[in-house]
Amino acid sequence: EGLIRLSVGIENLEDLWADLEAALA
Fold first, then answer.
1. Residue 23: domain span
2. Phi/psi of residue 6, nearest 5 degrees
3. pLDDT tens digits for 1-25?
């Protein structure tokens, strides 16, 4: 369960980073 939660957190972080890069671009 912890591993799944970690992978989901990483995916959310990547989505957030992509949105941030798009906003700064």
1. 1-25
2. -65, -45
3. 899 999 999 999 999 999 999 999 9
